[in-house]
Amino acid sequence: MRWLFLLAVTLAVFARAQNDGIGDSLNISFQVTSGGNDNYFLRDNVTAAQLLLTSASNASTVLRRLVVALPAGNSGALTYFLPINATDNTTSLSISLVNDTLHSTTREFNNAGIEVDFIFSSNASLGVTIIGAVRAMRDYVEGNGTMHDIFNYTLDSYNSSFVRLHRKWINTTLGDPPGTFRGADLYLSIPSNSSAQFSVTNNTWAPTVDILVPAGPSSGIVRIAVVTNETSLAGLKPQSLFLANATSGNEGLQTTLQGLANGSSEPAKQVSFLTYTDKFTAGGWRFLTYFGRDSMIALRLLMPTLTSEAIESVLGAVIERANSTGALCHEETIGDYASFINIQDNQSHLGNQPFYDYKMIDTDLLLLPAMAHYFLELPQGQGRAKQFLARNATLQNGTYAEILTRTVLYNYARALPFAQNATYGNLLGLRPGQPVGDWRDSNQGLGYGFYPFDVNTALVPSSLRATQALLDASVLSNTSLNATEVGDIAGVWEGHTPKLFEVRVDASTAQQRLEDFVVRANLSKSLLNQTGSSARGNEVAFYALSLKMDGTPVEVLNSDMSFNLVYGSNVSQVFLQHAVDALQPYPKGLLTNIGMVVSNPAYDSNRTNIDVLNRAAYHGTVIWSFQQGLMASGLARQLSLCIATNEVPTAHFALALSEPPAWCADDAFVQSLKDAQSRLWTAIEGACSEINTEVWSYSFNNESNTFEVADLASLSPDGTESDAIQLWSYGFLGIIDPHGNRTIDS
Ligand SMILES: *[C@@H]1O[C@H](CO)[C@@H](O)[C@H](O)[C@H]1NC(C)=O
Ligand SMILES: *[C@@H]1O[C@H](CO)[C@@H](O)[C@H](O)[C@H]1NC(C)=O
Ligand SMILES: *[C@@H]1O[C@H](CO)[C@@H](O)[C@H](O)[C@H]1NC(C)=O
Ligand SMILES: *[C@@H]1O[C@H](CO)[C@@H](O)[C@H](O)[C@H]1NC(C)=O
Ligand SMILES: *[C@@H]1O[C@H](CO)[C@@H](O)[C@H](O)[C@H]1NC(C)=O
Ligand SMILES: *[C@@H]1O[C@H](CO)[C@@H](O)[C@H](O)[C@H]1NC(C)=O
Ligand SMILES: *[C@@H]1O[C@H](CO)[C@@H](O)[C@H](O)[C@H]1NC(C)=O
Ligand SMILES: *[C@@H]1O[C@H](CO)[C@@H](O)[C@H](O)[C@H]1NC(C)=O
Ligand SMILES: *[C@@H]1O[C@H](CO)[C@@H](O)[C@H](O)[C@H]1NC(C)=O
Ligand SMILES: *[C@@H]1O[C@H](CO)[C@@H](O)[C@H](O)[C@H]1NC(C)=O
Ligand SMILES: *[C@@H]1O[C@H](CO)[C@@H](O)[C@H](O)[C@H]1NC(C)=O
Ligand SMILES: *[C@@H]1O[C@H](CO)[C@@H](O)[C@H](O)[C@H]1NC(C)=O
């Protein structure tokens, strides 16, 4: 017995030492293949970078695209390689990364980035190339090939084995420190084990750069480096990001924490790549910078598993970027693109000072619920409020407490009119001149509505309830607000808003619309024979996506009830019933065998929305991982209000209610919620391989009558592509699959 015990201890110590090595290190490297691209990620003490290359096996295009994106200044490079002399379609160009050659590199003047070797199968020519701002790269990829001359690079120097393309930032007179400027470079060179050559012509505009590859096995190797002297960010290693162990006896939490802090879980390493000591970034390659909404929703889902350092990184980043009115920043623009935006805004005197965007109406409402959850409900937030709020901001003047007070008062003032007169005109609408305002931030996303459902039914009351709780706990002190009064206002919003969005369709009309929908959406009528019904009595009832400016509902069934389930207090049985009814097989409900769609226009009397929100639309009948996470987390939270957590495992901490909600006594109803939860997880498990990505679509298989994962970029006319890793999709690390699977690791 004794030796066995000793062996076990020795092994455990060994395993811990090994694992601590991973979790304790800033160094991260991993690879993700998604959407026809190979993505390579690297972070060390020099740089953090994502490199994307069209997969060698991707035959859908002859173009080979290379993207390098660095969180430093949100900078990088985009370039396309084209086969030379491809007059027919037989000349295919294959480019692959040479294993183990990707590493960080430095150049003079504090330039840092990555260097890597590629092997070219045949002659290639450098196509469209953008060096510098990732936002300029996105404009080209997502905006029909938009290029701004102001971002043109110059051919700095070249010979047959070396090419340097240099992008000098727009603003060379105002720098940080003043008088300096920054830039980015794309270097191409020939390593000694290669006999490739460059043939370069310096035209007055873009140079021609050809890569000539003699016949021979590994003759076509080209070394590429992308560097910038924007400041690299300090990363959070897994051990600094995740708690090592639950500080309470929460078994669910203990389960979710396995493999996170020690970095042995692959997704834990991946999400760590997106996190830094002074902000979290939203996703790669397109969003490797601050986004308020993404940070705070991811935070909410992951928070029970996170350290104080990590949580305060997100909260601090949001507070630092608040404006003087108290609105919170949606997206920051930094680096070269900030100069461009400032010039567009006739503010060129600001040089390259960051531009903060305040157009969204949901972001302002996510901070207080996050803070209340942290300081009042989670063990790691206990006793931290005073010290945190006393911090001096670095991006603006004032303490965190002072800045936060502005946000509290701003949100309170915006909630007052509806509390006085609960009509739709007093709801929160989009900001003047903005077609977007919540997470469905495309023009079509809200069905061209003006008052979003999530903002008004879930986020306004939740922000007020959080304010009330923080006032009660004296965390917020320097406001004139009265906790009880704030609670009363929250009650009005909770009680009156859902009804304004309720859509009722009689059962026979609903059936006709479903039958019409499957034809228009090229689906099969047999989908309507699946068991499960969204009809209740003689009607189908659900909550609209949004209200139009005249108060009429946009009759699109959607997944945004997830916000109420996660953020809401006093969620009613009627509301939960709508959630159960929505979690039915698509197109009656939202669930396909490869996940939950975020919109379903089948019942809409406005049939044009079937096209507006189709499977190629960014917020159409497509699947967003974080929405599934929010729904799953929300159902677990609601069930945990009345069921012992050992029966419904959850990593959640909720304020104990003085008594369970009334619906807990209705066993059949509780069972229907559990069944809905189970159906949701079956759908989620159907596309585990996609779970860390941003969004995916479907193709419908007419023979099997099932849905298959489809890449949105190849369906979407404007090329909206999905990020391979997306911060809020990792919310699943904080959620337990009630079927007992560790979904996120699959
Ligand atoms: C980065 O880490 C390496 C070892 O992994 C070390 O040799 C080097 O000095 C470090 N560089 C800096 C700038 O800290
Ligand atoms: C491409 O074709 C042209 C015309 O046939 C030829 O002159 C040129 O050398 C070819 N270039 C390469 C790189 O093969
Ligand atoms: C090459 O393929 C494209 C798209 O598949 C097609 O439109 C084009 O006609 C083809 N060109 C030749 C020369 O076959
Ligand atoms: C590179 O690594 C992959 C798997 O990691 C392997 O399949 C492939 O053969 C390797 N390629 C080379 C050229 O070694
Ligand atoms: C791209 O161009 C097409 C046709 O001109 C237009 O309908 C579409 O809105 C454009 N997309 C973007 C993202 O600008
Ligand atoms: C920028 O480059 C494009 C070609 O990519 C060229 O047409 C344009 O004239 C250039 N503009 C300037 C200002 O150099
Ligand atoms: C290439 O041409 C451009 C524009 O004439 C010029 O600014 C640049 O210095 C030239 N590069 C080299 C290496 O000669
Ligand atoms: C950034 O690098 C460029 C060369 O690429 C150099 O000219 C410039 O002075 C550097 N700026 C700083 C602030 O180091
Ligand atoms: C984690 O905490 C539990 C009790 O909360 C304790 O039994 C266990 O030993 C701890 N594990 C580690 C590795 O510290
Ligand atoms: C750069 O910033 C300076 C200093 O504020 C400003 O005067 C100048 O117009 C800016 N230059 C450009 C090209 O934006
Ligand atoms: C802060 O942002 C809000 C929302 O966009 C705006 O209404 C307000 O005017 C901004 N405040 C300032 C001082 O610019
Ligand atoms: C904040 O700055 C003030 C001076 O402006 C200083 O007195 C105070 O100690 C600072 N607080 C913290 C927490 O650093």
What attributes characterize this protein structure?
alpha+beta; globular; 6-hairpin_glycosidase_sf; 3 domains; binds 2-acetamido-2-deoxy-beta-D-glucopyranose; disordered N terminus; 746 residues; 20 helices; signal
Mean pLDDT: 92
Unreliable segments (pLDDT under 50, ≥5 consecutive)?
1-19
* β-sheet strand percentage: 15-25%
- DSSP summary, beta strand count: 34
Q: Tell me the domain tally.
A: 3
Count of runs of 4 or more consecutive helical residues: 20
Query: Main sheet, how many strands, which sense, barrel?
Result: 8 strands, antiparallel
Radius of gyration: 26 Å
Distance between the termini: 36 Å
Based on Cα principal axes, name the global outline. Answer: globular
Main sheet strand line-up: 1-2-3-4-5-9-14-13
- Helix- and strand-based class? alpha+beta
Q: Are any ligands bound, and if so which?
A: 2-acetamido-2-deoxy-beta-D-glucopyranose
Helix fraction bin: 25-40%
Please describe what this structure looks like:
Keywords: Signal. The protein is built from 20 helices and 34 strands. The chain has 746 residues and is an alpha+beta fold. It folds into 3 domains: 28-228, no CATH class; 361-501, no CATH class; 513-734, no CATH class. The chain has an 8-stranded antiparallel β-sheet. Strands 6, 7, 8, 10, 11, 12 and 15 form a 7-stranded antiparallel β-sheet that branches. Helix 12 packs parallel to helix 15 (561-567). The longest helix has 22 residues, at 2-23. The protein is globular.
Topology:
Elements: H1 2-23, E1 28-34, E2 37-43, E3 48-54, E4 64-70, E5 75-83, E6 95-97, E7 103-107, E8 111-120, E9 124-133, H2 134-142, E10 154-159, E11 162-168, E12 183-189, E13 197-201, E14 208-212, E15 221-228, H3 238-241, H4 251-257, H5 266-273, E16 275-276, E17 279-280, E18 283-284, H6 292-302, H7 308-320, E19 331-333, H8 336-344, E20 355-357, H9 367-377, H10 385-389, H11 400-420, E21 451-452, H12 453-472, H13 483-501, E22 502-506, H14 507-520, E23 535-536, E24 539-543, E25 546-547, E26 553-554, E27 557-558, H15 561-567, H16 573-582, E28 591-592, E29 595-596, E30 599-600, H17 609-612, E31 623-624, H18 625-640, H19 667-685, E32 695-701, E33 706-710, H20 712-715, E34 725-726
Antiparallel strand pairs: 1-2, 2-3, 3-4, 4-5, 5-9, 6-8, 7-8, 8-15, 9-14, 10-11, 11-12, 12-15, 13-14, 16-17, 18-34, 19-20, 21-25, 22-24, 23-24, 25-26, 27-30, 28-29, 31-32, 32-33
Bound molecules: 2-acetamido-2-deoxy-beta-D-glucopyranose (12 copies).
